[in-house]
Amino acid sequence: MNNISRSVVRRSLSTRGLRLSSDSVGLARPAHPAALRQTIRQYTLDRPGGGGFFSLGSGGGGGGNDALEISNWPVTKVNTILNIVPQGKRFVVERLGKLHTIHESGFFFAVPIIDQISYVIDVRERAVDIQPQSAITRDNVSVEVSGNLFVRVSDPEKAAYGARNPLYAVMMVGSYHVHLSYPIDLWISQVPYGRSAIGELELDEILHNRAGLNTLIKGSLQDAAVAWGLEVRRYELTEITPDDQIRIAMDKQAAAERDRREQVLRAEGDKRRAELTSEGIKISLKNESEGKLIQVTNEAEAEKVRLLREAEGKAESLKIQAIAQAEALSKISEQLQKSGGQEAAALELAKEYAQMYATMGSKSNTMFFQESAGNANSLLVQAMSAMKAMDAKIPSDISNESK
After folding, report:
1. Sheet with 98-103: strands ordered across
2. Biological process GO annotation list (predicted)?
3. What mean pLDDT do residues 80-93 have?
4. Domains plus CATH for the chain?
């Protein structure tokens, strides 16, 4: 609290029978609650710029009607004997200056002169716009906070007799709980809270935990509003504005944080790209090696099958050749047993012998012969001897096979 404000408060308190203790951080000792409320009201109206802790405008659902109702509290109505209570309102009827009854929506009869409709209370929920207030956080940052207070009358009797102006009182409490630097010590003795919700939190906590702060303020307001017959439905912070230096620093911090995140994302992207590239190379090499392995395996299997088929073919060929040769020999043997067969065989051998020498002579200029190479008679004699030996052996082989 600055010196000018303190002097204004002290003068105002002195005129209303209040004293302000300088050793208690400006805590007021009210001599009478009504005088204290009037002092606070006068002080808020005397503040430069007007509006005090709050000012009601056309926004937030409250509008000028709320401001008019607060300033004109209590709202009364003339007793017309047959009285009609509109929906959403309650009529508090006093008989001879004492509470008689509270009527809900509908109609009722009231005795004229004796019965008075002292309070017309609207029990519908209303939204009150609390204008920006200067506050100081726990880490000594100056901020401006504004919000909307949603409240309704839950107990018309307490609203009528619990406070001189219940809406004004709950709005004062609401302003206090979003405010720390304002000299609210004048009425703090009536409110069981030593610090505001903003003053209990650091700036980062306020910015990042607005829902928790709303709940904290709502709970504190509800504790105070119960005695005044009010129910605080919710409190919503609409704007939190730090001072210019803090805002510039926050912008720089946000820019640095964005740059850091960009660098981190770029580095993670490069890392991921390198990982995917190496993984792709690894998979490619693996697939290539597996392909080569399959190729070699298939080629080996094909070679094995080929060799097997060739071996089977050769075996089959040799078998067929052997059978053919055996059949040929059998035929030759049969022919040799016939008349003139041996002479024909000898002639055939001599013919082949001559062809062999002719072939050898066509391939080389140098030839080596036996002494009797050109003696055909000698060749025939040798062939006939061989044929006789074969004739003697073949029948014995045939007889052995038959046995």
Report:
1. 98-103, 89-95, 115-122
2. mitochondrion organization
3. 91
4. 51-79+128-242 (3.30.479.30), 311-402 (no CATH)
CA distances from 293 to 290, 352, 389 (A): 5, 57, 63
Within 10 A of 299 (CB to CB), how many other CB atoms are there? 10
Say if CB 142 and CB 204 are below 8 A apart.
no
Q: Determine how many CB atoms are found less than 10 A away from the CB of residue 238.
A: 14
Would you state the structure tokens that stand for residue 174, as one six-digit string?
């609401």
Residue bearing tokens 């070679």: 303
pTM given for the model: 0.44
- The encoded tokens of residue 342 equal 């041996």
Name 8's Cβ contacts closer than 8 Å, sequence gap at least 6.
43, 46
Give the C-alpha distances (Å, rounded to integers) separating 381 from 342, 348, 354, 357, 390.
11, 13, 15, 19, 14
Spatial distance between the Cα atoms of 201 and 189, rounded to a whole number of angstroms: 22
Dihedral angle over CA of 127, 133, 135, 141, nearest 10: 110
Cα–Cα distances in angstroms (integers) from residue 46 to residues 8, 138, 183, in the given order: 9, 29, 14
Nearest to 394 by CA among 110, 311, 190, 402: 402
Cβ proximity of 232 and 154 under 8 Å: no
The CA distance from 202 to 139, in Å, is 5
Bridge partner list, 136: 142
Asked whether the bond before 74 is cis by omega within 30 degrees of 0, the reply is yes
Q: Which two tokens stand for residue 217?
A: 């303020």
β-partners of residue 116 are 94
Most confident by average pLDDT, 131-140, 220-229, 356-365, 377-386: 220-229
pLDDT tens-digit map of 88-103: 899 999 999 899 999 9
Return d(Cα 395, Cα 333) in angstroms, integer: 9
Tell whether the model's pLDDT for residue 210 goes beyond 70.
Answer: yes
**Token code pair at residue 130:** 């609390």
Q: Are the C-beta atoms of 228 and 166 separated by less than 8 Å?
A: yes
**CA–CA separation, 125 and 123 (whole Å):** 7
